[in-house]
Amino acid sequence: MKIATWNINGIKARIDAATTWLKQANPDIACFQETKCQDEAFPAHVFEDLGYNVAIHGQKGFNGVALLSKLPFDEVRPKLAGDPDDVQARYLEAVISVPSGVLRLINIYLPNGNPFGTEKFAYKLAWMSRLRERVKGLLALEEPMVIAGDFNVIPAPEDVYNPSAWMDDALFRPESRAHFQALVNLGLTDAFRACHDEPHRFTFWDYQAGAWQKNQGLRIDHLLLSPQAADRLQACEIDPAPRGWEKPSDHVPIWIELSV
Q1: What is the average pLDDT score of the chain?
Q2: Which of 37, 92, 77, 80 lies closest to 59 in space, CA to CA?
Q3: Smallest Cα–Cα separation from 14: which of 246, 171, 193?
Q4: Residue 144, exposed/middle/buried by CB under 10 A (0-12, 13-18, 19+)?
Q5: What is the DSSP pairing of strand 65-69 with strand 221-225?
Q6: Are β-strands 204-205 and 101-109 bridged in parallel, bridged antiparallel, or unpaired?
Q7: In terms of C-beta distances under 8 Å and separation of at least 24 residues, what long-range contacts does 74-77 make, across chains too?
Q8: Catalytic: which of 150, 159, 169, 190?
Q9: What is the third-level CATH fold of 2-258?
Q10: 205 HSE (CA, 13 A, CB side)
Q11: Degrees (nearest 5) of the Cα angle 201, 177, 140?
Q12: Which residue, 21, 42, 121, 197, is the most exposed by fewest CB within 10 angstroms?
């Protein structure tokens, strides 16, 4: 089973890129982030025509997450528990039946948190704490589980082109990295690092200052696996090609293959 995650940066603006890549890569499951539209405006029919079941949790003009699956959803749960006042569309959880049992998917668009020292950074850390509590509870189920998405966290210096330039950015602050590590320490596996140890493999390049052409990127899109999913991991790759397409997202897809 091939599972992909991609911050699409506006599903309507990137619909051609999304469909082109899905036809080429043919993932069984795709997790999109930053869809930037309300549920009723999401072009679900386009993806249904490609053979996908679609689950969405959207918000007008901001945020938004979507799950596409060639297998039907047994359960779908939007919103991250822990703060009833949080209205931002950043979390979508689903359960899918697979030949070996079930697979749980969590699709996240984690808050950016910039500028550091503001309420936005406090919200980021609080959201990460809530995510950790949710994941901790789900790990007790001992299911194959994949947490995929734009984490807006650079885990280590080798995941950024110039660490010194990012020291005060919310994506690379020690607090953000510590929260990410605390999540991993629950028993999760960073799928990319389980398959690759080379530095400077990126999933994001800013639109400004020729970042793509200079390969000044970041690795901030991740797939974290429960022990039961990590045991089934066969491959993990970043596909940088769509960043060079016309009207690209500033992120690119990253995917894993699991035996199911």
Answers
A1: 97
A2: 37
A3: 246
A4: buried
A5: unpaired
A6: unpaired
A7: 74/102
A8: 150
A9: Deoxyribonuclease I; Chain A (3.60.10)
A10: 21
A11: 100
A12: 197
Q: What does DSSP assign to residue 138?
A: H
Give the pair of three-digit tokens for residue 257.
């293959």
Exposed/middle/buried for residue 168 (C-beta within 10 Å: 0-12, 13-18, 19+): exposed
Q: Which of 28, 52, 91, 109 is an active site residue?
A: 109
**In angstroms, what CA-CA distances link 115 with 25, 99, 120, 197?**
36, 45, 7, 31
**Whole-prediction pTM:** 0.98
Ramachandran assignment for 61, one of left (phi > 0), alpha (psi -120 to 50 degrees), beta (any other) = left
pLDDT tens per residue across span 171-193: 999 999 999 999 999 999 999 99
Please check whether residue 65 is in contact with residue 149, taking contact to mean a CB–CB distance below 8 angstroms.
yes
Query: Hey, where are the domains in the chain?
Result: 2-258
Rounded (to 5) percent helix, strand, coil in the chain: 25, 30, 45
Q: Is 169 among the catalytic positions?
A: no
Q: What tens digit of pLDDT does each residue of 83-127 get?
A: 999 999 999 999 999 999 999 999 999 999 999 999 999 999 999
C-alpha atoms less than 13 angstroms from C-alpha of 140 in its C-beta half-sphere: 5
223 pairs with which residues across the strands?
148
Known catalytic residue at 109: yes
Give, as one character, the DSSP assignment of residue 164.
Answer: G
